[in-house]
Amino acid sequence: MLDSKHMGRMIRYHRKRAGPTRVQLADLCGVGKTAVYDLENGKPTVRFNTLAAVLTGLNIAPDWSSPLMKEFLEAEDA
Question: CA-to-CA distance for 16 and 65, rounded, in angstroms?
């Protein structure tokens, strides 16, 4: 299960492997350095837009899947 603590560890791992400091990543993503710190430490109340910006900055693509996803996407295209 992917909870906020697990996601924080994943984000920290990707950031460290990619090389930027927290401040550099925050600047790249247009978020505050505290937001990156909070994400990496598993704070469960970080805004979705902040999370999305950091994931994008680290080239992490969320996999939005469900048994109904194909049906939903077809309905969206109609």
Answer: 28
Domain 4-77 top-level CATH class: mainly alpha
8 A C-beta contact, residue 4 and residue 44: yes
Rounded-to-integer distance, Cα 37 and Cα 50, Å: 12
Could you read off the pLDDT of 9-21 as tens digits, one per residue? Answer: 999 999 999 999 9
Annotated domain spans of the chain: 4-77
Q: Which two tokens stand for residue 70?
A: 């194909």
Enter the DSSP assignment of 61.
Answer: P
Flag whether the pTM goes above 0.90. no
